[in-house]
């Protein structure tokens, strides 16, 4: 039990929204307790397409507010986390019979002009017969548009928000399920359960934030005890990962004949990421898995564009997640709004709850600011919005200074090979030095579990980022899972069973 049992704010959910809210609130001086029933980012927030984007497609659904806010966030987030977020150029081939060129041009004109773009380069037109981007595609695509958006390591964005929240005083508890929350006058009594030991605990808080993503309605009905709750529409999206299909650093935006679009994106140096799908999902969000039909859809859609088609046998990994979209009654899954809605209940003697429905990774920081406005309406003002100009852990270097940062790390640790120095800077930014400590050789980094995943990195993740299992390390804090064999992953699992429980308290 925490030393001070009455917290200002209790946050349910350690996805991007819960962790973003916890960070913002802790930074303003609120006492915050966050519980996540599994690992950080184990829900939707590690299963996205990983774009910091305005959402060109949403313009077709007149989502101007969302697109403008999201476009503005691109450079804000890049500046605050230039290790895990970076600009990416997208190549959108013009395809006869699909959206007319004037419509695409109009969309991209708005994209370039409504979002406060300063550092990101503007749209241009490409002659695909001459541009290297035309090379891997079928020759029938003669013209394309190239525009800017951003890339994010989604799962790490969550972990870094949690880390910063904890550094500012928040308690972050993973593998801790909120099993019930009941009002006791102007306080909430929240019952928690350690999912490993079954141990129960009760925490009191003045305000409850429900940021449970796809579980948000479930929390309201089963946990808080409200009847007949239906606020979100659960929409599955799946991705496939194949060996690198093209060398160009740019990503592709492909239009499909059904009106949808997919991306093909350079991924983890050696791979190409292709997705996503959109279909209503009736099951348990934790059980979500790519279907055969989705695999066929993605292979077929990508093969319409690539000169050498994408086959099932090319797939090295897949992942799926569930979008918790605010249910605005749209008929098709792909048309449901991607905007967020915050709804509050309580006050005047009844402890307040604020629920977050919908949202994007891209808009998590703005969602958190809006949430703080609602919170401060109940609990009183504590501080001004502050996160627009505050680097996330390891992100305290210039937005365009990534290569300089890699070089600095190599100078400080000359034994690091170039790939490892780059990988560590990508994941940890300036905190790579904390991870490497006094090491003077590879041997000082301890055991190599494979693909240059050393014991020092694993210990850092356990001590600083709440990693407890091999899966946390291999598929969320890093993507070394793409490189390690089953045996190597098994050895890491065994190692972590030995150390993680002892260190989890250190991370809190
Ligand atoms: C296929 C796909 C592609 C996407 N692509 C993009 C993109 O490119 N760019 C973009 O900006 N956005 C994208 N999104 C949207 C974005 O991923 C989501 O909006 C965002 O991750 C939602 O975060 P969240 O924190 O609300 O939910 P989650 O990440 O799901 O977090 C909720 C957490 O609450 C926990 N929880 C639930 N119940 C309890 C309980 N009782 N006790 C304790 N913990 C609990 C869960 O375990 C979970 O970890 C995409 C989404 C999908 C599905």
Q: Could you provide a short overview of the structure?
A:
With 508 residues, the protein is of the alpha+beta class.
- CATH fold type of the largest domain: FAD/NAD(P)-binding domain
Name of the CATH class of the largest domain: Alpha Beta
Q: Count every helix, treating DSSP H or I runs of 4 or more residues as helices.
A: 13
What value does the average pLDDT take? 94
Helix % is: 25-40%
Bound ligands: flavin-adenine dinucleotide
CATH architecture label of the largest domain: 3-Layer(bba) Sandwich
Uncertain segments are none
Strand content: 25-35%
Q: Structural class from helices and strands? A: alpha+beta
State the shape: globular
Overall radius of gyration: 23 Å
Described by strand count, sense and barrel closure, the largest sheet is: 10 strands, mixed
Structural domain tally = 4
First-to-last CA distance: 12 Å
Polypeptide structure, described:
Residues 387-495 form the Alpha-glycerophosphate oxidase C-terminal domain. It catalyses: a quinone + sn-glycerol 3-phosphate = dihydroxyacetone phosphate + a quinol. Belongs to the FAD-dependent glycerol-3-phosphate dehydrogenase family. InterPro entries: DAO_C, DAO_C_sf, FAD-dep_OxRdtase, FAD/NAD-bd_sf, G3P_DH_FAD-dep. One of its GO terms (cellular component) is glycerol-3-phosphate dehydrogenase (FAD) complex. The protein has 508 residues and is α+β, with helices and mostly antiparallel strands. The protein folds into four domains: 6-44 and 155-231 and 338-389, FAD/NAD(P)-binding domain (3-Layer(bba) Sandwich), CATH 3.50.50; 73-152, 2-Layer Sandwich (D-Amino Acid Oxidase, Chain A, domain 2), CATH 3.30.9; 233-326, 2-Layer Sandwich (D-Amino Acid Oxidase, Chain A, domain 2), CATH 3.30.9.10; 402-507, Alpha-glycerophosphate oxidase, cap domain (Helicase, Ruva Protein, domain 3, Orthogonal Bundle). Helices cover 31% and strands 25% of the residues. It contains 13 helices and 18 strands. It has helices spanning 16-27, 64-80, 101-113, 154-167, 216-223, 292-303, 364-379, 402-412, 418-428, 432-436, 455-465, 470-477, 486-507, and strands at 6-12, 32-35, 51-52, 85-93, 124-127, 143-152, 171-173, 176-184, 187-194, 200-210, 232-243, 251-255, 261-267, 271-275, 279-280, 315-326, 340-347, 350-358. Strands 3, 4, 5, 6, 11, 12, 13, 14, 15 and 16 form a ten-stranded mixed sheet that branches. Helix 1 (16-27) links the parallel strand 1 (6-12) and strand 2 (32-35). The longest helix has 22 residues, at 486-507. The protein is globular. The model has no long low-confidence stretch (mean pLDDT 94). The structure holds flavin-adenine dinucleotide (FAD). Residues 12-18, 35-38, 42-45, 47-51, 53, 177-178, 211-215, 219, 223, 237, 276, 321-324, 359-362 line the site of flavin-adenine dinucleotide (FAD).
